[in-house]
Amino acid sequence: MRTKIVAGNWKLNNDKEESKKLIKSLKKAIKENKLKNTRVIVAPTFVNLSSSVKAAKKSKIEVVAQNMHQASNGAFTGEVSADMLKAVGVETVILGHSERRTYFNETDAALAEKVNTVLEKGMETIFCFGELLEDRKSENHFTVVESQLKNALFHLEAKDWKSIILAYEPVWAIGTGETASPEQAQEMHAFIRGIIEKKYDKKVADKVSILYGGSVKPANAEEIFSKPDVDGGLIGGAALNVKDFTGIINAI
Q1: 93 partner at 20 to 30 Å CA-CA among 36, 62, 153, 161?
Q2: Is 97 noted as a catalytic residue in this protein?
């Protein structure tokens, strides 16, 4: 049985006190939820990781990073390494988010290097990928997604996939209010699982958790999460509101 995951990407939001307050409120909201086979994850900004890890102690909430540099050290102003993350208690990192690809020109090649570093350091990644609106309109979305996965992940060995969580995010549905229909999400998730099986085997494909990321809200979460190949969500704006985020968690 695949692990269900609800991950909140806070992006460039919340200062130290706001982050701690949100975690405290979330801890209280999910205290009575046994969350069997479900992981609850939040991703604060770099400067709030350490205090957020402390705030989440003795709870079911995991704190992860929004990004990471592939190098261990060096002249990379403004960057953070895997060892720095691990030193403050962070073991999982989001990589390849569409905003990183779009605004910071992250390439598949660079992401492959970051994934390699994650594995070398014994960490885990939530790896993001997905098509633009023009790709969807031109019916090129399957080709784009397959290329992103092959370029960044298909050099890995089968054993490495135990440290990989996938997050399919149709870029046209992020922060736009648009959402892929549950049927569209299932279609793509099934396709993703299929190409992994073709490259590796059914065991690897069946075990990897694939999250959907694209304007998930309490109102649509249950229907999206009910699809057989959708194992949870990577949540943006709704993760900043305890009521909304809890509603999404309860829908899984």
Answers
A1: 36
A2: yes
